[in-house]
Amino acid sequence: PKGVINDWRKFKLESEDRDSLPLSKKEILRQMSSPHRSFSKDDKDTRERFCRKMSMQEYELIQDEKEDESCLQKYRKRCMQDMHQRLSFGPKYGYLCELQNGEQFLEAIEKERKTTTVIVHIYEDGIKGCDALNSSLTCLAAEYATVKFCKIKASDTGAGDRFSDEVLPTLLVYKGGELLSNFISVSEQFNDEFFAVDVESFLNEYGLLPERELPALGNGNTDEQDVE
């Protein structure tokens, strides 16, 4: 499509090492980098020069070295980043938040956007599975930045009698202030030793996680990073 071609042309021109170009090519770059400038009514010659079709000299400049692969890869990465930014809405978290009391627990649920999924881990120190689940949720929080992951000790909720050791660890999942899922003794769903990938698969079975975030593209490595 014409829009994609023009976008690639602009990116290619901006990527050129201008210091190494002869003066004639520098002038072409200057002209082509400002195609939308305004002109006076009397400046007919200048206006026609900027509105003309691409000359053979400009075409050869863009096609020089057959549009080297490195520049093309950079262009693709930029397009992916732009697309990802357009598709990413709402706040970003990226960490496991520690709630200190029942008031913070309620605020984390009721004051979030209706589109935000809030996953709360009710735990206590020394309870089997709680430490492993906290470690797993810390990893998942980094992978699913649009999901708000929280943890709170049962004794800090103000309703400790409802969360006895027998039901811990417990996972509560909310959206729009409504409880979607309530998993008590959730570590029983896994092996004695479990990791983030196991918790991720479990949550995905119930459709509680969004599409996974795109990996970072800044270092040129586009391989998907595994959750450990």
TrEMBL record:
Organism superkingdom: Eukaryota
A GO CC annotation given for this chain: photoreceptor outer segment
InterPro entries: Phosducin, Phosducin-like_reg, Phosducin_N_dom_sf, Phosducin_thioredoxin-like_dom, Thioredoxin-like_sf
GO biological process: regulation of G protein-coupled receptor signaling pathway; visual perception
Keywords, alphabetical: Cell projection, Cilium, Cytoplasm, Nucleus, Phosphoprotein, Sensory transduction, Vision
The Phosducin domain, residue ranges: 1-221
Compartments (UniProt record): Cell projection, Cilium, Photoreceptor outer segment; Cytoplasm, Cytosol; Nucleus; Photoreceptor inner segment
Family named by the database record: Belongs to the phosducin family.
Protein name, per record: Phosducin
Organism: Asarcornis scutulata
